[in-house]
Amino acid sequence: MSVVDDEDATLRERLADEPVPALRVLAVVAVLVAVEFGALANLVMSLPWDAVGAALPGFLQGAAATIAGVGDGLAGLPTLLSRSVIDNAGYQLPSGEWVGTFMGLSPAAAWLLRVALIYAYGFVWLLVGWWSYLVYRDNYRHADWAPVDDMVGRFRNHSWGLFGLAIIFAFVVLAVFAPALGPTTVDANIADPYLHSIEYYSEETGGVEEIYVGDANGESQSRGQGGENVGPMQYDQYDRFHPFGTLPSGKDLFTFMAAGARVSLFIGVASLVLAGGAAVVFALATAYYKGLVDLGIVIASDSIQALPQLLVIMLASFVLSGTWLANLYNGGVVLALLFGLTGWPGLWRAVRGPALQVSEREWIDAAKSFGQRPSVTMRKHMLPYVVGYLLIYASLTLGGVIIGVAGLSFLGLGINAPTPEWGRAVSAGQPYVATPSWHISLLPGILIVIVVTGFNALGDGIRDAIDPQSDVETGQQDQTAAAGGGA
Amino acid sequence: MVADSSRSDAGTAAEPADDRLLEVENLQTVFHTERETIRAVDGISFGIAEGETLGLVGESGSGKSVTARSIMGLVDSPGELLPDSSIRFDGRELTGLSETQYESVRGGGVAMVFQDPLSTLNPVYTVGNQIEEALSLHRGLSGLEATEKAIELLEDVGIPDAARRVSEYPHEFSGGMRQRAVIAMALACDPDLLICDEPTTALDVTIQAQILELLADLQEEHGLSILFITHDMGVIAEVCDRVAVMYAGEVVEQAPVVELFENPRHPYTRGLLRSIPSTQRGADRLETIEGEVPTPNAPATDCRFAPRCPEAFDACREVHPEPVPVATETADADADHTAACLLYPEDETREQAVDRHAIEDAPPGAGAVDSGGESR
Amino acid sequence: MSRWSYFARRVLLMIPIVFFGTTITFVILRMGPIDPAAAVIGASGDTEAYTSVRRSLGLDQPLWLQYVDYLRDLFTLQFGYSWVVNRGRPVWELIGVYAPRTIWLGFWSVMLPLFVGLPLGFYAGLNPNTLSDYVASFGGIVWRAMPNFWLAVIFVAVLTQSEQLFGFQWESWLVETNIVTPPELQRLWVPENFFGAFKAILPAALVLGSASMGNEMRIGRTAVLETKNENYVETARAKGVPGRKIVYKHVFRNALIPLVPIITGEAFLLLGGSVLVETVFSINGLGYLFYAATINADLPLVGSLMFFFILLSVGINIVQDLLYTLIDPRVGYGGEGA
């Protein structure tokens, strides 16, 4: 967004001139990546590559499979902050001693330690990100001052926006490090409990026994009355620690929530990339060409908005169920596509105003007058102005998408069972809200409220940073954005 | 023209002038922010006689508009008038009035015309509706009677086809017409004093002249006093009887209009006059005053103009100047001309003058110093 | 361009929107991977039944002819029959049965925010940076972030256990009502019936209106805050208009302008939300009907319902433009306020 032209070559030159600060940043990043390489590879592999793979022609699929194999191999590499290094699974001997856990700590303490370390690691990334921005700004940016500096400055003083940022940071870390954060894994505890087993100390036999996770889950159910409840921060009878308690099926709720966060975040981001991309392209095109192009897109977007979003997504995901598309990422890809296709009109409406405004500026006329190509004018002179506004609504819409996806899975649509999704936990806990097993419905709901509030706060913060002249007009679009189709 | 021409001690307005319609004395309006207290208006005094037009001139940020709003009682939290301030209108003290008490003053006694005629009219009501609102408040008119009076007022301010336009919305009026409508609305209140806050700044030059002419006609017709706020010296020359020059919350010079233009004493006033294009005929380029008006956030201990002043000397940074009479021999004896500058009085040595300012400034409320000068 | 010709132009623009919206539905239903006829007869796989269903749905026609027929039927309001959910019943009849409940629910979930959220927001805007402002603002933000379905679950649980939790029984309080049944909407003009129906719908309406309430609070607050600082408000004060009248005449009406699209936009969002809320509260309304039709693959019913929803949405849009035109004289004037 710098005022002065930042051609690649000149940036490269500036880097070559003064490589030390950049190398320093690079070194820190390399160390950070190295200690968690396995986890990052794991994250990369968890993305729905099948979608890409299926679209490839036959001869490439072999190659893709090889790459996938390598990727899976990398994902298996040891990492510093993983379950295997700081293990929270173990059993307690009658003497009170813990066996199998990290340094003999109690599972709760081991788990908390791991969570704390992972969040600290995430926070270091945040700091490095901020630091590299400073390094870029002070050493390599051509302009001493750019409008973005003021925006960053305003945002730093915006406590409500920072609050949102903190929550979103926590949420993103939860999603990204989901496999390492859960006290157990989705695989072992939720997807295939009868393919995994755990050890526990049996008082009956007086020795260490082994039991299938599935069988153990049967004994750790939360079904309200009758003593069948494993609440938040409690152990079950197999010495397994459940930070959020268990589901009615006896599965671990925190593991479920962490994996669900990943699904929500993927759908949210993917759908927004789609919708945001379309919105920006259309907004720039309508602002540049106006007239018929504008009218056409107005009608198209109004037509899509005339359909109740949630109902259309419900219908379309039902119609598409059973096709190959619906199985990608357990239905996540379809949902992302549908939220994207139905969501762009809202985003487009939000950035159309700013785009039109900027298109009225003299510098656009100037660019036109000396014969710059439209695509270049739009990209260089209009896009930077529009992107900020897009961020505002993207943040607000993300909250809405999370609510919408949860609402669909509450109805049993969208994400295929048993893949974790927050809405399904609410639905599973529905009969137990007013019982000792209240946590099943309440905790996921409260998490949704917090995350959505966080996204709204972040959006407010960005808006005030970009456009301190506030906001009744821009406020209009919020409602649809943050509403998730009314879920 | 000048009401208290019999007085020679006009310097610090120590004694109230009973025959003045508006008497502002030591007005201090401050705004509290988180970090500091901004002294937007910092102890200014002036008066307006019946039928007189006082011009308040200064750069943006000098406190002109805040002065107007203080008189209108429109200063809201975080702003407030400091306790020593006094605003007397028609013999009645306005500071300390409750909001309800003030409502009878606003409009009825003092009416105001704002700078931007588009935003001063409520877009969702017809022009007639907004004039009739004032009529019902201050003249007890309603219904058809009010409409007729509104049409009459619109005709008075020179709006053609008033009977039709009375039921139109502000956005259907042109800029100049809107300002006429705003003036009609102010007149509907039947005020004695009209405060015009840069009423022509947002208008085209030709329209400006028409509006100024209209104001002059109306003043004659209704016997209005006018407080005319502007940053435009040209406008001042055209409409005012007397002028007060404001700088950084203070009145730095006050004089009848002809005297001020012919014989500006304060360096700031001279700078202002030199930056008017029309008085510079023949010059290659306009002079400008470098720098900006500072934001006063503490009681003054120096001359606030010193950093920009071409004639500043050391004492200017240590002594706060007080208004002193500066009428010259050539001018009318009762010219009532004061300036707040350490260069004056001219008939004293620089040290004497500086000492005089230092003493006058020292005790709060001091100012009853005779124009003798030997009071060391 | 005058206000009313602007309004007329907006209404005219609705025609292509209905047309395209319907086309999107057609594409999803007929060009998607699901064969409506197969979905109707289910897994039985009887070839004869299949052919006859195909014929009566017109699926043996070429696609363009199907499209023309589809549009013609809908635009002449011939909504056809349900095939699975309530076999053989005309769709209009189903709408007649299900719609009143949704309308009753929707009406109150628009009204409650309007008469609770909006005044709270205006109040907060008039008294900014006071404790009540913070409470209202923060409450609005959190209230708005709550997912409807979750809030509904909590409401149902709390109300059914109200005896144990609060020591009073919601169901028998004042009027006997159930919590998770459709409201009785017969003879509403009898005060007792009216109140019963109101009480029965109240929890669901509060849930469905929650997002709107939070929004209207928030935007109402900013709108008042901004309007309060407008020059015309200062002008009104300068001419001596009393404080109370300034608020009613000069602040509220202007602050309402940016709220119009919010209120109508939310009315439309309620349609989507009604599916979840009606499911949790077992209110057999249109949302529930659509949901049932979808999961039972009653595609003809789905298509007709969707068209009905499009008409509703367009209707709401027209109401919005009408309100705009009435409330803001600048509408259609040189592009302002449009």
From TrEMBL, chain A:
GO terms for cellular component: plasma membrane. Residues 474-487 have a biased composition (Low complexity). It is found in: Cell membrane. SUPFAM superfamilies: MetI-like (SSF161098). Residues 261-459 form the ABC transmembrane type-1 domain. InterPro entries: BP-dependent_transpt_permease, MetI-like, MetI-like_sf, OppC_N. Residues 468-487 are annotated as: Disordered. Its main location: membrane. It is a multi-pass membrane protein. GO terms for biological process: transmembrane transport. The chain crosses the membrane at residues 22-44, 51-71, 111-136, 160-181, 263-285, 306-326, 332-351, 386-417, 437-458. Gene3D superfamilies: MetI-like. Belongs to the binding-protein-dependent transport system permease family. This is Peptide/nickel transport system permease protein. It comes from Halolamina pelagica.
TrEMBL record, chain B:
It is found in: Cell membrane. Residues 350-360 have a biased composition (Basic and acidic residues). GO terms for cellular component: plasma membrane. GO terms for biological process: peptide transport. Its EC number is 7.2.2.11. Keywords: ATP-binding, Cell membrane, Ion transport, Membrane, Nucleotide-binding, Translocase, Transport. It comes from the Archaea. PROSITE patterns: ABC_TRANSPORTER_1, ABC_TRANSPORTER_2. InterPro entries: AAA+_ATPase (IPR003593), ABC_Ni/Peptide_Import (IPR050388), ABC_transporter-like_ATP-bd (IPR003439), ABC_transporter-like_CS (IPR017871), Oligopep_ABC_C (IPR013563), P-loop_NTPase (IPR027417). The complex is composed of two ATP-binding proteins (NikD and NikE), two transmembrane proteins (NikB and NikC) and a solute-binding protein (NikA). Its main location: membrane. It is a peripheral membrane protein. It holds the Pfam family ABC_tran. This is Nickel import system ATP-binding protein NikD. PANTHER family: NICKEL ABC TRANSPORTER, ATP-BINDING PROTEIN (PTHR43297:SF13), OLIGOPEPTIDE TRANSPORT ATP-BINDING PROTEIN APPD (PTHR43297). One of its GO terms (molecular function) is ATP binding. It is an enzyme of class 7 (translocase). Residues 22-273 form the ABC transporter domain. Residues 347-376 are annotated as: Disordered. It catalyses: Ni(2+)(out) + ATP + H2O = Ni(2+)(in) + ADP + phosphate + H(+).
From TrEMBL, chain C:
It holds the Pfam family BPD_transp_1_N. GO terms for cellular component: plasma membrane. InterPro entries: BPD_transp_1_N (IPR045621), MetI-like (IPR000515), MetI-like_sf (IPR035906). One of its GO terms (biological process) is transmembrane transport. The chain crosses the membrane at residues 12-29, 103-126, 138-160, 194-211, 255-276, 288-312. Keywords: Cell membrane, Membrane, Transmembrane, Transmembrane helix, Transport. It is found in: Cell membrane. Gene3D superfamilies: MetI-like. Residues 99-320 form the ABC transmembrane type-1 domain. It is a multi-pass membrane protein. Belongs to the binding-protein-dependent transport system permease family. PANTHER family: DIPEPTIDE TRANSPORT SYSTEM PERMEASE PROTEIN DPPB-RELATED (PTHR43163:SF6). This is Peptide/nickel transport system permease protein.
